[in-house]
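Priority: medium. Attachment 1 of 2:
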């Protein structure tokens, strides 16, 4: 069987990971790796001997054997690179955020539709086996009504990386919110704070309100000495805890009925909450890396002509919500202190 030929553009931090995971799929070959820096390309030439390293993006666009382009470059370059690839009749997988602004995202979605090419966004966290398991529970109505989603996402980024870095972390959580709830928020609140003299927020607190009465809270901190990425979901029947950094027991499920209130007498006004840890279950979930699953899904969609789980529309929704969050941040002002 003839292999599907791909090219990866952008060989900084994420590009080499994509190349490695794509090459694990026997159905494809990575023909080109492209980057503006020859220094970045040289190690890839030795590590992956089968590919051609080039600094000329036009060489990829002009190659009739290349059927798809995978873009892992800075966000402000995504629109131009993806647009040129689509116009050259290539399928596109682009790192998120898909574009820098809403108008660019809309244009890419429309262009992909016009040229009949697949546009998929690398929302890797959506493909995490733990998130997939939780989504199946929701689809089977095992959870009941979802009251809240509470994300805690912390890492440490150098100050010069904050502008793009913090939004890359926010958009990961946004993509999961859309995937699990399947609805748009109707109200967005956001507040952020800066570290030292830097001009970019180093941590943000975001609250999303939905028509279904569900609330999603996102706490993203890019100046934390401790790395963590966790999600708690409060539902009618279950309370679910997800840890993106755990390979084993990434999902823990508690029966909501185990959260009980003790009876109290008239003389004792305290009300104690209890949780029966014996009611916790940790389902057996495959330890496959989300990035590998995402890459496999992209190839699957191209070969079987399927609609991607995280298609251009999903990327557009994420860019739209990022825009709303940025607007909320600029409008948020602290309330004056109440005088006594």
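Attachment 2 of 2:
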């Amino acid at each position: 069987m003839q292999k599907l030929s791909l090219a990866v553009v952008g060989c900084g931090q994420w590009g080499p990971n994509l190349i490695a995971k794509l090459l694990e799929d026997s159905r494809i070959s990575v023909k080109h790796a492209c980057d503006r820096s020859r220094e970045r390309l040289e190690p890839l030439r030795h590590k992956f001997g089968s590919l051609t390293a080039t600094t000329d993006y036009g060489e990829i666009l002009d190659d009739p054997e290349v059927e798809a382009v995978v873009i892992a470059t800075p966000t402000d370059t995504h629109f131009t690179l993806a647009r040129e690839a689509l116009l050259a009749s290539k399928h596109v997988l682009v790192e998120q955020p898909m574009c820098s602004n809403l108008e660019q995202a809309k244009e890419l979605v429309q262009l992909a539709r016009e040229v009949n090419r697949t546009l998929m966004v690398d929302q890797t966290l959506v493909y995490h086996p733990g998130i997939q398991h939780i989504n199946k529970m929701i689809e089977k109505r095992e959870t009941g009504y979802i009251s809240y989603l509470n994300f805690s996402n912390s890492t440490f980024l150098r100050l010069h990386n904050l502008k793009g870095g913090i939004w890359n972390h926010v958009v990961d959580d946004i993509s999961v919110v859309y995937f699990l709830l399947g609805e748009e928020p109707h109200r967005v609140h956001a507040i952020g704070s800066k570290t030292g003299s830097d001009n970019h927020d180093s941590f943000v607190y975001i609250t999303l309100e939905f028509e279904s009465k569900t609330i999603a809270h996102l706490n993203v901190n890019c100046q934390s000495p401790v790395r963590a990425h966790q999600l708690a979901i409060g539902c009618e029947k279950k309370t679910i805890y997800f840890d993106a950094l755990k390979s084993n027991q990434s999902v823990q499920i508690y029966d909501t009925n185990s959260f009980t209130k003790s009876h109290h007498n008239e003389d004792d006004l305290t009300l104690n909450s209890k949780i029966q840890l014996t009611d916790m279950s940790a389902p057996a979930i495959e330890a496959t890396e989300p990035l590998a699953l995402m890459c496999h899904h992209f190839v699957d969609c191209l070969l079987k002509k399927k609609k991607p789980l995280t298609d251009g529309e999903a990327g557009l929704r994420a860019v739209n919500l990022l825009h709303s969050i940025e607007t909320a941040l600029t409008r948020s002002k602290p309330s004056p202190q109440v005088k006594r």
